[in-house]
# Entry
Amino acid sequence: MDEMGIGEFARRSRLSVKALRLYDEMGLLPPSRVESASGYRYYTPDQLERARLIASLRRLDVPLADIAGLVELDGADLAEWLGEHWRVAEDEHATRRRLVNALVVELSGRRDDMYEVKVRDVPERHVLCVKRHVTPAQAWDLGKEFIARLRDARLPRVEGTAGDVFAIYWGEVSEDSDGPVEWCRPVPESAAEALAARLGDLTLRVEPAHREAYVEMGPYEDQRAEDWPLAESALRAWAKEQRLGEGGLAIAPEELGMRVTYAFRPGGPVCDFAAAYAE
Amino acid sequence: MDEMGIGEFARRSRLSVKALRLYDEMGLLPPSRVESASGYRYYTPDQLERARLIASLRRLDVPLADIAGLVELDGADLAEWLGEHWRVAEDEHATRRRLVNALVVELSGRRDDMYEVKVRDVPERHVLCVKRHVTPAQAWDLGKEFIARLRDARLPRVEGTAGDVFAIYWGEVSEDSDGPVEWCRPVPESAAEALAARLGDLTLRVEPAHREAYVEMGPYEDQRAEDWPLAESALRAWAKEQRLGEGGLAIAPEELGMRVTYAFRPGGPVCDFAAAYAE
DNA sequence: CTGGGGCCTGCCCCAAGGGGAGGGTCAAGG
DNA sequence: CCTTGACCCTCCCCTTGGGGCAGGCCCCAG
# Structure
């Protein structure tokens, strides 16, 4: 029988002795034999394949908890899982790359050419709103639903950009912070009173006139939550350049919220990411 | 004075309250004022910029220890540092991508088309060797030096592939495991005796005849240590296919070592990654 | 039978916070 | 003035995937 001690097995599997003892303890890779008297672990060469697979997965930062399930899969299923895992990793990497680019551009004082900041004046508006606390997952689905409801053709429309549906993020929406988010639809003042009767879960309020700095984020379907902080920082850099309050208070998420406007223009719906400020 | 509590500061900086308390404790981002009676932390808006920078760097997985130094740099230097940091990250990502590809190819049973495994017979040879324990950093420099020494034109050459300089990795070379690595130069048997007199730190030994499975790794200058395990696994997969010992023992790094052959062919030096086995 | 290397368990340590207990503070409303 | 609820404090334990070390067996070769 072709046994070896833990040291040799470690060298040949490219795992550390410490890791092997851990994997034994958690049942992921028990030695083929453990001498009860001494406690010595003995491994056989046919355990190397599993060990090397574990080592590879660890090198890809797959958590041990996942690995425990994965090593029971057959090759094809594991390959499929890896494909999916890698897709996610590529995604995160791309997000980080955008963040690095944005940071470097901002720090080196160059103009950010990724996002062009524009300004628009928004008049006082009567808006129909619905406000919810949502997790990131819900935000997308619920958003779609509310946007559809609010675009309901039977509601009279406000002319121009000021009539687009928008959402206000009053707080951060992430795994452990759930908004709130408010979806809004401007309605003509003339219609507001009549609507007040049949509101349902909607509320009617008046938004003050303000100025918005915004960047265009492209098609609605392509929105990725990770890009919003980049847009936000572009707005902030712009604000600094414009000397809109050195303390960072002119752009005021805490007052008027970060906004995403859904403009259903010809050619498909596109988004703006906007920060309102009160001059 | 435009102070805010830790909660508001957390929201506006996209850092958690917990993180802020930690950064205070370690002096990275102390509040502008701490009420001594209550222990309450109060921050000012002009601290937001630093806080947001820290948050961005953390999102890039920069360790806090590094961040502590980085936030004192000016924009240009920090941008430069980020560029370098990112270059490394891209590198690691590319390495992981190669590993995933290799794994998926191997697991789904497809032939690995990245590396074509070839076989060659190596006759018994007299070799001039120098063996050292080296760290990864040293391996490269020391390797260059020894290869140059061993290629010394005054030594008689063995004809053909069998005459190429090669290195044997007897153990893993990584941050915490230092080899050993042996650099070798075959010499004709006829010259061996005469050489024995003026050996210096070189040793002369006889390598048994064996067969080597190998893959071609491209130019010498492009070698990256991270690719070698991939090549090794390609060899191992090939060995399995050839039924060269199901236990994984026929390919025997533990016996004959993993080899890298430096072939100084016309067109520049290229490397082979080889595993010797004893039929 | 003795030395040296291999191996054992058990304990503490790391980053970068998260979660919660138990208790003090602040500001607004009654 | 009092209460209530939101906010904040410190302290302690928990996480992942091991690394490092202490103190003590074990095993094999000479």
About this structure: DSSP finds eight helices and twelve strands in chain A. Chain A has three domains: 6-72, 81-110, 118-277.
